[in-house]
Automatic annotation (TrEMBL):
Name of the protein this chain belongs to: D19L3 mannosyltransferase
InterPro entries named among the record's database cross-references: Dpy-19/Dpy-19-like, Dpy19L3
GO MF term list: mannosyltransferase activity
Locations listed in the record: Membrane
Record's keyword annotation contains Cytoplasm: no
Main location: membrane
Recorded superkingdom: Eukaryota
Compositional bias per record (Basic and acidic residues), positions renumbered to this chain: 21-31
Pfam family, one: Dpy19
Topology versus the membrane: Multi-pass membrane protein
Residue intervals passing through the bilayer: 41-66, 179-197, 217-235, 242-258, 264-281, 312-329, 416-440, 485-507, 519-538
Keyword Disulfide bond: no
UniProt record similarity statement: Belongs to the dpy-19 family.
Length: 714
């Protein structure tokens, strides 16, 4: 804003010259007031238009994925059993608790059935609210019961529409984050366009609706948007408090809805720790975020009846260790460059050591072993020794837990997203490294010079930079986690393409910088990119919306109908984890095992049940199944004769190796493996030999499934 001051060395005007001078001042002040008012009106208009665009895009995305789901399954036309079967594997298990709450005589009885559940794991009563993240199903079921919508909306539609509605929140949060970083809502528009056109790699909500990540990721996106706003400079105290509250609520809801929350927040805490060590983020705000993470998780722990896995998580130990280390090591941010580097190395070692000690101490007290399979998996995955552990190998052989396929990058490149992402990532990473080095070197200077050193990289941009780098590493190592990275990739790339600071840096390096050129490029390039995306992908999106398919799985439908019609309600079923989740949802029968794998007792039980696909005697298999009160066992040809995985990764191979037996087929075996004394159970039982029929009677079969009833010997 222009200001008026008296000229240096000028002669003070006489009385007869006062009038013209006053007139000039009045005109200047009027012009300033006009500019200020005009700028304020423009900001209000931009905020209004940007907000309308954000809400519109969120709603359109929600309708888009709902339409894809309907077109893919013809969900409105198929039978209820087919709708339930469409919720595959663990999705069906989670939805079954929503159905259970809806069908309960009262809310109190429904909650009692979850807290004292004896149908999810036979001969064992477990607390579902403690073991699984299903509070969202509880909340939705209660909401459905108390709202006057039962006559107009079926329970399943209330459920799936809620999930599709959360997609609107997800998209709006991505839009707002990009807008906050770049200063223009054009960036948010570009981020959402990339999110939609890269849908295969940014979300899978339309075909895995009840999956925990589809509940959690919208809240995680809201949390990132709130953290981005928190790291803006010159926030008023009231704004800062409200933002911290928003971060806490989003963190709490994210933690409540996904069992993998602790690992995501550990990466987030690591990002904050790195940036704080290099003075790129304000320490006070970072400390608040550590406290919010701990308090959010502890609140979830209390709601989950003091779930020991949360208390023993690395994120609790890591954040606690950071706060302890700060009290031990003071004056970390004073001294010359070498002195600072030495202190940082010692600080990192102290935090790491404290984290391991605190975590080991907590696990020792709580006798916690629920997450040991994850560390076995990580140890084997990153080459710290081969393992025969069945649980670790089960994860290692799943494509979802493998490395990110290279064709992902070709798909992301088709929309220009990956090219733009790398184009923005490289200069920002270099800038961050330079700023970090300068901050360490500037530690002895006055505050004004320190600010000059950090001005090249804003805290909100720095946070999102390290966030995308760390979650990118996670996605590269584990394909299932790519949805955390690719959605943020849309935000980061669109922000960089619309950022004044990024274009200033690039143009200055190319010696082409002018203020006008920067302003033109920051709007022109994104608009051209948007037009290219619309031109290339809009016809495909329209064709996709017109493509109609139908759910078709007659063998599974036949199986579920047979179970409901021909078995008692108290019958106990054994089989694969994935199929049994559907059995519970569609029939309400009791299970021996299920896909929620975060419990040591359940993992051991599942390994025992899976001996039906191993080389074991009929007497051994019968004894194992009856130890879990099994009445019926379901054998699947797709597992017994599996061809989806290569040799060494088929379920029967994993069982053979774990049992010390040679695997089937041509190929090498480890020297200490030996031939089994018995043939494979799932193959041999179909021959109806006396040694099998004395224990097992076939009661149902079709092209896919074989159901055997177990004899009840005295």
């Amino acid at each position: 804003m222009t200001t008026i001051r008296q000229r240096k060395g000028g002669k003070v005007p006489e009385a007869d010259e006062d009038q013209p001078s006053d007139e000039k001042n009045v005109k200047s002040e009027g012009k300033n007031l006009y500019d200020h008012t005009g700028g304020k009106l423009w900001n209000i208009l931009s905020l209004t238009v940007g907000g309308i665009v954000a809400i519109s895009l969120g709603l359109l995305t929600s309708v888009y994925v709902a339409t894809l789901h309907e077109n893919d399954l013809w969900f409105s036309n198929i039978k209820e059993v087919e709708r339930e079967i469409s919720f595959r594997t663990e999705c069906g298990l989670y939805y079954s608790y929503y159905k259970q709450m809806i069908q309960a005589a009262s809310i109190q009885q429904g909650l009692h059935g979850l807290v004292y559940d004896n149908k999810t794991e036979s001969v064992r009563t477990i607390n579902i609210l403690e073991r699984m993240n299903v509070y969202q199903e509880v909340f939705l079921s209660i909401l459905y019961r108390i709202l006057p919508i039962q006559q107009y909306l079926e329970p399943v539609y209330f459920y799936i529409y809620t999930l599709f509605g959360l997609q609107a929140i997800y998209v709006i949060a991505l839009y707002v984050t990009s807008w906050l970083l770049s200063g223009t809502w054009l960036s948010g528009l570009l981020a959402v366009c990339w999110y939609i056109t890269n849908r295969i790699d940014t979300t899978r909500v339309e075909f895995t609706i009840p999956l925990r990540e589809n509940w959690a990721l919208p809240f995680f996106a809201v949390q990132i948007a709130a953290i981005t706003y928190l790291f803006r400079s010159h926030l008023q105290p009231a704004q800062e408090r409200l933002t911290l509250l928003a971060v806490f609520v989003a963190t709490f809801l994210f933690s409540l809805t996904w069992q993998f929350n602790q690992f995501m927040m550990l990466i987030q805490a690591l990002a904050l720790f790195i940036l704080d060590c290099f003075d790129i983020l304000p320490t006070a705000k970072v400390t608040w975020l550590y406290i919010i993470q701990i308090s959010g998780l502890l609140l979830v722990c209390a709601l989950q009846f003091f779930n020991s896995m949360i208390l023993g998580s690395l994120i609790i130990s890591f954040n606690t260790s950071i706060l302890i280390a700060r009290t031990i090591q003071k004056n970390l941010k004073k001294g010359n460059l070498l002195n600072r580097l030495g202190k940082l190395i010692l600080h990192a070692l102290l935090v790491s050591s404290l984290t391991l000690l605190v975590n080991r101490f907590i696990k020792k007290i709580l006798n916690l072993e629920s997450d040991e399979h994850i560390f076995k998996f990580l140890k084997a995955k990153f080459g710290f020794g081969a393992t025969r552990d069945f649980d670790a190998n089960l994860y290692l052989c799943e494509e979802a837990f493998g490395l990110l396929p290279l064709n992902t990058f070709s798909r992301l490149s088709d929309t220009l997203l990956f090219y733009v992402y790398i184009f923005i990532l490289i200069p920002m990473t270099i800038t961050a490294a330079i700023v970090a080095l300068r901050n360490l070197s500037c530690s002895n200077q006055d505050q004004e010079k320190v600010e000059e050193c950090t001005i090249a990289l804003k805290p909100d941009a720095a946070y999102n930079l390290i966030h995308t780098v760390l979650f990118g590493c996670l996605a590269l190592s584990t394909m299932r986690m790519k949805y955390l990275w690719t959605s943020h990739m849309c935000v980061f790339a669109s922000f960089g393409l619309c950022s004044t600071e990024i274009w200033q840096l690039i143009l200055k390096c190319a010696r082409l910088y002018t203020s006008q050129r920067t302003q033109v490029i920051k709007y022109l390039i994104p608009i051209i990119t948007l037009l290219y995306i619309l031109y290339k992908f809009w016809p495909g999106i329209m064709d996709e919306l017109l493509e109609l398919r139908e759910f078709y799985d007659p063998d599974t439908v036949e199986l579920m109908n047979w179970i409901k019609s021909n078995t008692p309600n108290t019958a106990v079923f054994a089989g694969s984890m994935q199929l049994l989740a559907g059995v519970k949802l569609c029939t309400g029968r009791t299970l021996t095992n299920h896909p929620h794998y975060e419990d040591k007792h359940l993992r051991e039980r599942t390994k025992q049940i899976y001996q039906i696909y191993a080389k074991r005697s009929p007497e051994d298999v019968y004894r194992i199944l009856r130890s879990f009160s099994t009445d019926y066992v379901i054998l699947e040809d797709s597992i017994c004769y599996e061809r989806r995985h290569s040799r060494g990764c088929r379920l029967r191979d994993l069982l053979d190796v774990a049992n010390g037996h040679i695997m089937d087929g041509l190929g090498e075996n480890e020297p200490d493996l030996k031939p089994s004394l018995y043939p494979r159970f799932c193959e041999e039982i179909k021959k109806n030999l006396p040694s099998y029929t004395i224990h097992f009677t076939r009661v149902f079969q079709n092209k896919t499934f074989h159901v055997y009833k177990l004899a009840k010997h005295k």
